[in-house]
Design goal:
Layout (H helix, E strand, L loop, with lengths): L2 H7 L2 H11 L7 H13 L9 E10 L5 E8 L7 H5 L2 E4 L5 H13 L2 E2 L11 H7 L23 E2 L8
Parallel strand pairs: 1-3
Antiparallel strand pairs: 1-2, 4-5
Helix pairs in contact: 2-5
Amino acid sequence: MILKDLILKYEFDTIVPDLTGIEERVKSNLYGFKEAFDTLRRMTPGDAGGEQIVVSEHVETDDDGSEMERYLHASNCEGEIWKSALAKEVVLQADVTETRALALILWHITFMVSLRNINTTPDMTMTERRTSLNLRPQSCNIISSATMPESGAKRLFRAESPVAR
């Protein structure tokens, strides 16, 4: 099933519990996610370029192989032109419901962050990195490299999804 079909299959209220479970700050930005969801429902899919959106579980380990963190990730949708993302086949490689996958994809497709004042180190877990980031929802279609000033402070970093429950 392509992302457009998955979005049309569910109402926004159906994915809210999964969406708010991703991160505490989502609760105060539900209006932005609803706006993005409604916009995606109205759009016509473009060309997927042969790519898929894969929802999978990632496990971070330390040097001795001990598990440090486990989280879900939705690939090939961050920073993507929404028309292209809508045409991509959604593949569930993790044991998740469609509504949870859709919430995660919506979270990924709408989040990009500025690297201004980011204080992360390579040994930080994804949760620690996310905590140090100033996350805010922004439409990848509105904020693009073509419309942003050419400044080091405006470089974009794509955040990973929160820990899988």
